[in-house]
């Protein structure tokens, strides 16, 4: 009797369940009819749901409609506002919360009240703990049966599989009968989802045990069963949530590890992984998930890395990663991603930072890294076979195309760009190491040399792909998304030139490389044509910086072509002419970057000059003064710089004008200085220390440059001319102190001063620069600050004093005046006489021109002479010379005193007259 009781209860439960199932089916059908009628009404779903939005925020499954609307639904008539019916019914939402707009649903979830302790413990933790208890219960039951020997392995596995299926069925049954609002409130703790997950784990375990432990089934059948289970769980996740989808994804990705085989097929493996990843993407698209697809992309990238380390075939890995990129572009997030840009958005650090934080960051970054890392690992394979190189290029090109295909795809675009550049650098380094190893061990070096051929063409092709993608992106979106289009303009302008430059350095022919030369010419022409096209499309002023970047890229490409097809002085001159051609285009186009191209061009000329000052090589440089290759090599760029500064004298961009003015001044001075250096050193340019005569010419040039810039500043005021003139004067003063009076002074170096008494090295090295300083100070007295004028005047006075002093020594010592020759008594006395003469002369000039500065200088020299007489002459002179020294000094000092008394008396006599003139007249 008791044995029949369970059977009777099971029959009663079956009848009750069947009756409940019929009632549920009938209610679902009626609810579907009502929903269909609801969405046939004239009002949109958002408008119909608007009266219930406030209630839905507290209870999203209870939508209260107006009475007239309900009546209209029953009668199948339009609502009271008389709106027409829709021709096609919209998709029926699963719950009442789906009636809300997306923004309202997000706001509902964002403003959900804090969860109580009762909900947390009873509704969530109880479910999680229950699911875990079910899993452990099944494990313990199987363990008990094994230890007790009650059932055989086959029966145990069958029962475990049936247990898992029963849990899945029970989860679906409860899902159909559970409260609708539980799906919204407890999405990550749904009882049906927990039961389904426990059942899926049981199925995974039973299938694996049947293959891996008991060997009941072979690897093929086990693989198929595990794959079907994983995809089934992934399908059920559409009903139970994202957590179950993660379990199905984990099962599918782990399945290949659970199956052991002696002949693994890489194609089969990555075909299965690709299908799993695409299926996950489809499910995520349907439910709007972000976490599970990101994990799927990361796991597929990890599988690619593992396979590249263990196996040699890269083709299935490449195709699988390409399929993942296609799924990202076409399925999820695909075209459903919102446009984060606005027409008012402009290029700035803040705007770029904001763009970096927009979009589906998890999806974007995991996709980019999952593609980039395996692609870089492929490069090592490319040293022996070229196919991995093509795989690398295909992955980087596809990733960059994905970034260009969607609005705001910042990370795929930037990471693809970095990957291309890293790949070029890494491959170049690997090729160089291979050449060293092969040549070092005496192996045939043609293998290492031929490795550069595929690499060069692959990276040039990759550069062309980036150009095409960038131009297409800018053509479509330069107005709608100027920020991201400007980023693409920077990539299009820089990356292809960098890739071509790297391949030229490592694999090019330095004498004349037609491959890189023609590629660079084509690249420059395409970028320049893009500037013209965008300009005619009305891209200014919103896309001004993008056009400027493309201009810079075209110039860089043409400059690379010059380096690939020419050499030496020809490259230097053509580089300046190329920049001047861009600058002359300012007459036809108002592009702000045209003037800056000339600035960059002249900067390139300076780099080439610093690299090789001879421009043609030391052996090919002619020794003829002036008429040698240095004249056109330095003179033509300087002349073009001067013409450029004049051409854009009215250009609105002040920074470009000032930069060209400064470069024109610098190049002009450099051209004259290098010709002087060449002439003074017998036609040889080397690093030897210049002589005093050569340095004097440089000092005169700098002083002259200061005066020229001062004059230009008066005619065309400019900060470059104003501060440049004072900077040149300061440099000249430093040269005087450090070189003329110090390192190059013939008193210290022992250099010959020449055979002629007056026209000699001392004239060139001291008197002429001193006069130049004096003239500069006189010219600048009302044009520059007083401290600057005083500094120039003091420099001239010091050099003049040095010329007199050294000339006295030359009179007594001859051509060589080095300090080690000592001093004669007559020479020592002569210094005092000469210094007193200078002091008296300055005093007379100061009185004549009423120049207080000259009188002060006179007083300083006289005081110096007094100190010399009392400290040096008294100790070193003897006899009549000592007496004459003091007598002469006494007469001069008395005369100076009388002279000053006369001046002071004259000023005192004039003071009352002046006071009377200034006193007010009393009437």
Question: Which key phrases capture this entry?
Answer:
923 residues; mainly alpha; 35 helices; disordered N terminus; transmembrane helix
What does this entry look like structurally?
It comes from Peteryoungia algae. Keywords: Membrane, Plasmid, Transmembrane, Transmembrane helix. This is DUF2339 domain-containing protein. With 923 residues, this protein is mainly alpha-helical. Among the domains are: 4-103, no CATH class; 593-688; 689-813; 823-911. It is built from 35 helices and no strands. It is elongated and about 140 Å long.
The computed structural class is mainly alpha
Q: Total number of β-strand segments? A: 0
What would the principal axes of the Cα set say about the shape?
A: elongated
Strand content: under 5%
Low-confidence region ranges: 1-10, 42-112, 179-188, 435-449, 913-923
Mean pLDDT over all positions: 78
> Helical element count?
35
How far do the termini sit from each other?
A: 151 Å
Radius of gyration: 45 Å
Biggest sheet details: none
Helix content: over 70%
Pfam families: DUF2339
Keywords: Membrane, Plasmid, Transmembrane, Transmembrane helix
Protein name: DUF2339 domain-containing protein
Organism: Peteryoungia algae
Write the layout of secondary structure elements.
Elements: H1 4-39, H2 45-49, H3 53-58, H4 67-75, H5 102-110, H6 117-148, H7 153-177, H8 180-185, H9 191-213, H10 219-240, H11 242-258, H12 266-287, H13 291-310, H14 315-330, H15 349-356, H16 361-381, H17 387-405, H18 410-440, H19 446-450, H20 452-477, H21 482-507, H22 514-536, H23 544-565, H24 569-584, H25 593-611, H26 630-647, H27 654-680, H28 692-715, H29 719-743, H30 746-749, H31 761-780, H32 786-813, H33 825-848, H34 852-876, H35 880-918
Helix pairs in contact: 6-7, 6-9, 7-9, 9-10, 9-11, 10-11, 10-12, 11-12, 11-13, 12-13, 12-14, 13-14, 13-16, 14-16, 14-17, 16-17, 16-18, 17-18, 17-20, 18-20, 18-21, 20-21, 20-22, 21-22, 21-23, 22-23, 23-24, 23-25, 24-25, 24-26, 25-27, 26-27, 27-28, 27-29, 28-29, 28-31, 29-32, 31-32, 32-33, 33-34, ...
């Amino acid at each position: 009797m008791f044995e029949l009781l369970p059977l009777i209860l099971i029959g009663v439960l079956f009848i009750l369940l069947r009756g409940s199932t019929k009632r549920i089916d009938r209610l679902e059908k009626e609810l579907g009819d009502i929903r269909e009628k609801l969405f046939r009404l004239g009002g949109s779903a958002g408008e119909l749901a608007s009266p219930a939005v406030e209630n839905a925020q507290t209870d999203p499954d209870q939508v209260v409609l107006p009475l007239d609307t309900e009546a209209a639904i029953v009668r199948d008539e339009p609502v009271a506002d008389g709106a027409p019916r829709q021709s096609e019914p919209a998709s029926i939402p699963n719950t009442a919360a789906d009636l809300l707009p997306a923004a309202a649903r997000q706001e509902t979830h964002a403003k959900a009240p804090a969860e109580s302790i009762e909900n947390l413990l009873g509704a969530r933790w109880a479910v999680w703990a229950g699911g875990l208890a079910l899993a452990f219960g099944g494990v313990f039951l199987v363990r008990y049966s094994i230890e007790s020997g009650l059932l055989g392995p086959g029966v145990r596995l069958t029962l475990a599989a049936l247990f898992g299926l029963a849990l899945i069925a029970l989860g679906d049954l409860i899902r159909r009968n559970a409260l609708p609002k539980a799906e919204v409130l407890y999405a990550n703790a749904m009882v049906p989802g927990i039961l389904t997950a426990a059942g899926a784990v049981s199925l995974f375990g039973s299938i694996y045990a049947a293959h891996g432990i008991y060997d009941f089934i072979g690897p093929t059948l086990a693989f198929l069963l595990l794959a079907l289970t994983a995809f089934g769980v992934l399908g059920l996740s559409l009903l139970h949530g994202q957590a179950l989808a993660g379990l199905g994804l984990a099962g599918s990705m782990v399945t290949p590890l659970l199956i052991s085989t002696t002949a693994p097929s890489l194609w089969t493996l990555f075909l299965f992984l690709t299908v799993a990843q695409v299926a996950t993407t489809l499910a995520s698209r349907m439910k709007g998930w972000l976490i599970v697809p990101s994990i799927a992309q990361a796991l597929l990238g990890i599988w690619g890395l593992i396979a590249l380390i263990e196996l040699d075939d890269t083709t299935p890995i490449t195709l699988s990663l390409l399929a993942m990129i296609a799924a990202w572009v076409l399925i999820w997030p695909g075209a459903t991603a919102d446009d984060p840009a606005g027409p008012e958005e402009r290029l700035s650090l803040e705007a770029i930072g904001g763009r970096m934080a927009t979009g589906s960051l998890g999806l974007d970054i995991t996709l980019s890294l999952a593609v980039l890392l395996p692609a870089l690992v492929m490069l090592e394979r490319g040293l022996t076979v070229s196919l991995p190189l093509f795989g690398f290029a295909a992955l980087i090109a596809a990733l960059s195309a994905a970034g260009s295909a969607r609005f705001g795809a910042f990370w795929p675009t930037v990471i693809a760009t970095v990957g291309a550049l890293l790949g070029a650098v890494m491959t170049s380094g690997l090729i160089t190491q291979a050449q060293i190893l092969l040549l070092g061990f005496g192996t045939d070096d043609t293998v290492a040399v031929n490795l550069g051929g595929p690499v060069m063409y692959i990276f040039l092709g990759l550069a062309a792909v980036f150009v095409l993608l960038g131009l297409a992106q800018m053509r479509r979106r330069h107005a709608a998304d100027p920020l991201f289009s400007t980023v693409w303009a920077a990539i299009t302008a820089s990356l292809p030139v960098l890739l071509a430059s790297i391949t030229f350095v490592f694999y090019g022919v330095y004498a004349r490389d037609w491959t890189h030369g023609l590629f660079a010419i084509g690249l420059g022409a395409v970028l320049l044509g893009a500037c013209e096209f965008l300009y005619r499309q009305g891209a200014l002023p919103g896309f001004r910086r993008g056009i400027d970047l493309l201009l810079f890229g075209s110039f860089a490409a043409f400059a690379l072509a010059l380096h690939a097809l020419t050499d030496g002085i020809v490259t230097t001159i053509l580089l300046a002419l190329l920049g001047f051609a861009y600058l002359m285009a300012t007459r036809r186009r108002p592009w702000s970057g045209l003037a800056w191209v000339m600035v960059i061009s002249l900067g390139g000329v300076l780099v080439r000059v610093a690299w090789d000052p001879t421009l043609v090589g030391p052996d090919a440089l002619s020794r003829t003064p002036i008429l040698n290759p240095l004249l056109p090599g330095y003179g033509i760029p300087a002349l073009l710089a001067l013409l450029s500064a004049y051409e854009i004298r009215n250009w609105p961009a002040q920074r470009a004008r000032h930069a060209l003015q400064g470069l024109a001044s610098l190049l002009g001075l450099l051209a004259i200085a290098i010709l002087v250096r060449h002439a003074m050193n017998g036609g040889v340019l080397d690093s030897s220390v210049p002589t005093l005569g050569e340095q004097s010419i440089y000092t005169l040039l700098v002083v002259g440059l200061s005066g020229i810039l001062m004059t230009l500043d008066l005619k065309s005021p400019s900060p470059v001319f104003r501060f440049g003139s004072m900077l040149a004067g300061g440099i000249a003063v430093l040269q005087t102190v450090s070189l003329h009076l110090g390192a190059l002074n013939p008193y210290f170096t022992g250099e010959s001063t020449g055979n002629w008494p007056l026209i000699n090295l001392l004239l060139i090295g001291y008197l002429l620069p001193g006069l130049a300083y004096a003239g500069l100070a006189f010219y600048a007295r009302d044009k520059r600050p007083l401290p600057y004028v005083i500094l120039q005047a003091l420099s001239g006075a010091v050099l003049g004093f040095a010329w007199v002093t050294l000339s006295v020594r030359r009179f007594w010592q001859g051509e060589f005046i080095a300090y080690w020759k000592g001093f004669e008594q007559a020479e020592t006395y002569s210094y005092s006489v000469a210094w007193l003469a200078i002091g008296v002369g300055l005093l007379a000039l100061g009185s004549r021109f009423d120049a207080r500065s000259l009188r002060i200088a006179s007083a300083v020299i006289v005081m110096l002479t007094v100190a010399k007489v009392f400290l040096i002459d008294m100790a070193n002179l003897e006899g009549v010379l000592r007496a004459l020294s003091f007598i002469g000094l006494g007469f001069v000092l008395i005369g100076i005193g009388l002279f000053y008394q006369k001046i002071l008396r004259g000023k005192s006599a004039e003071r009352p007259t002046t006071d009377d003139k200034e006193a007010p007249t009393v009437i």
